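Two proteins were folded this term; both appear here.
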Amino acid sequence: MSGQDSEDFGAENLSDKSQMIPSLPPYDMDDQLLPREPRSAWCCLAWTLVVGTMNFLVFFMNLLLMFVIFTIVLLPTIVVVYFGFQCHSRVLHSAARYCRSILDDNSSSALIILGFVIMSPLIVVAMAIYCSLARRLRLFMCFQPYSRAVYKGVKWRWYEEGGLCSCAKGWNTQVKAWV
């Protein structure tokens, strides 16, 4: 580098190698990967049960949320296919009044086909809604690593991020993602 360039950076007396690194990264003892103290066998087993139970509950909550969203979004498909199968003479052939007066075998077949055709786009919509909600609520940040059970002093991930599952932290509106 020339003398003019080094004056611009304020590094007149530094060597060429030190000019490549403008400043050192921040040094924080909490974020270091120092050898941690392992827990005893019984303590590790107890913490493994706690972390495993917590991760199972988070998984169950995610599964329940996904089930609710998919049920609500796919409700039109469920209703159309149900009535199609209920009124078709070769499937259930219900004796309901609407099956005898409105829906014959051709219209029941049309309902079944329509239900399965509109299912694909509705599954995509339901998955987009679930992914958007999971990203916004940061649900996958609630899972805890197994190292929390093995070593002492590992912080809870949700505690570091600003609350349970980072929900208390302000949402970053600058980040956009297409689902």
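Next, the second protein.
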Amino acid sequence: MAGKNMIGTVLGIAFDIALMILLGVAIFYGIRLNRQVSAIRSGRKELEKLIADFTQATTRAESALSDLRQEVGGSLDATRKASLKAGELCDDLEFLIKRGEKVADALETGIRAGNKTTARAGVGSVEPAMDRDEPSAAAKRGGRALSAAPEDRVVAAPDKSAAKKARAKSKSELLKALQDMR
């Protein structure tokens, strides 16, 4: 029995030694784990501070972005309005140009009509100076007088008034077109 006791004692001591070694290893890892947890706790405080700073920065960025959107929206609206107004002015200018061309054509037609009536009235008045009772200076030099006889002037007066009426009508059309643009 003494041999069994001894084996039991040696085995008990061996288990105790193995248990002490395992407890030593557990204590070593416990200390190491405690250091890591302490590092995490201190890092957590820093992380919370970083998260708070990040949240503030995000809030400021969102605010700045909102302000930027409002400013860009206002600028975009102003640009759109200016663009629409420019388009309207362009359309108005095109209308004025077309209307001006029509009025210019009417004026030109009126002027030509006035010149033709004046020329027709003056055609009969061109006569040699020798045939007239009083020769002019051009007749004395051997030329023709281009002045109209008093009878021709009376005939030409209504034609001139027609040309004046045509010009007045063209002017009134131009003024009306300009007033319509306002």
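DSSP finds three helices and two strands in the chain. Helices lie at 2-123, 137-140, 150-181. These notes refer to the second protein only.
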